[in-house]
Amino acid sequence: MSSTVGLGVLVGYDGSASAESALDWGARDAVARRVPLYLVTVVPAGRFAHRMELRQRAHTLVEEAAGRLRARFTGLVVEESVREGDAAESLLEASARGDTVVIGSRGHGGFTGLVLGSVSLRVCAHTSCPVVVVHNAAAEDATGVVVGIGGPDDDPAARFAAAQARRLGGGLRAVHSWVLPVTGLAPTLVLPTMLDVDAVTAERTRMVDRVVGPIRTLDPELPVDTVVMNGTAGRDLVTASDGNALVVVAAHRGHGPLPMRLGPTTYAVLHHAHCPVAVVPVR
């Protein structure tokens, strides 16, 4: 996949309920930013009797969806395409056309009990641009955006979150969680007496303020607040997502022979957040 991206929103669409929610989210984002929307559906590759029928049904599916969008959003440029092959790989290749990918949490191919499908997870793990995963039950009246700040390099996630907060008309909350050290004898035996908790909290607060400082300078009218707490990042972000429009997490790509593409915080938020989740790669 190319390392350069275009300007626009790419939506992976298969007609499922979560794909419809993703389509609505992506269209609103494209309209607000005045960029094109690229609508992509993927059919399996291979030699089988109903291949042509399957492709035709896929073309009809995206053409009808594109027609509904054009009628609903005047002036929105919509391009639709049908690709053959592995769904995740095809979406990753197609993502070079846009600066944001929007997908449903689980398509027609997923098991009912799974919150997040394998395609969504693979796209989040390997894309070079932000991915927004939309669940079926996204609150329509929510406007707030939450961003997890794990360290000083998470400013791309903060900038993306701020842009979405401006679009949605709500405020931005930056959340940082840190865990007390343990004795090594048992995870429950923390050492608060050997650590100046207030000093650590103040240090972490300064770090978060440095990350969101440029956002406050660029747009002083955007409400921005920070929350620094002792806790587990994944759990705290899931809690903070309740009642908000979007939660944003930074994806730090692992290195080495067996890199960890998504960390435990990202996994937790993707699977348990109460609102759409944006995964922003941080290099």
Structure report:
By secondary structure, this protein is an alpha/beta fold. The chain has 2 domains: 9-134, 3-Layer(aba) Sandwich (Rossmann fold), CATH 3.40.50; 145-282, HUPs (Rossmann fold, 3-Layer(aba) Sandwich). It is 39% helix and 20% strand. It has a 10-stranded mixed sheet, with helices on both faces. Helix 3 runs parallel beside helix 4 (118-126) and helix 7 packs parallel to helix 8 (264-272). The longest helix has 22 residues, at 51-72. The protein is elongated and about 70 Å long. It starts with 8 loop residues before the first strand and ends with a strand. 40% of the residues are buried.
Can you describe this structure in just a few lines?
This protein is α/β, with parallel strands linked by helices and 283 residues long. Helix content is 39%, strand content 20%. It folds into 2 domains: 126 residues, 3-Layer(aba) Sandwich (Rossmann fold), CATH 3.40.50.620; 138 residues, Rossmann fold, CATH 3.40.50.
Low-confidence stretches: 108-115
Basic shape: elongated
Helix content: 25-40%
**What is the gyration radius calculated from CA atoms?**
20 Å
Number of domains: 2
User: How is the CATH topology of the largest domain named?
Assistant: Rossmann fold
Arrangement of strands in the largest sheet? 3-2-1-4-5-10-9-6-7-8
Q: Report how far the terminal alpha carbons are from each other.
A: 16 Å
Question: Total number of β-strand segments?
Answer: 10
Q: Beta-strand percentage?
A: 15-25%
Task: Tell me the CATH architecture of the largest domain.
Answer: 3-Layer(aba) Sandwich
What's the main sheet like?
Answer: 10 strands, mixed
Oligomer: single chain
Class by alpha and beta content: alpha/beta
CATH level 1 name of the largest domain: Alpha Beta
Q: Count of helices? A: 8
Q: What is the succession of H and E elements?
A: EHEHEHEHEEHEHEHEHE
For the record, what is the CATH homologous superfamily label of the largest domain?
A: HUPs
Q: Average pLDDT, to the nearest integer?
A: 86
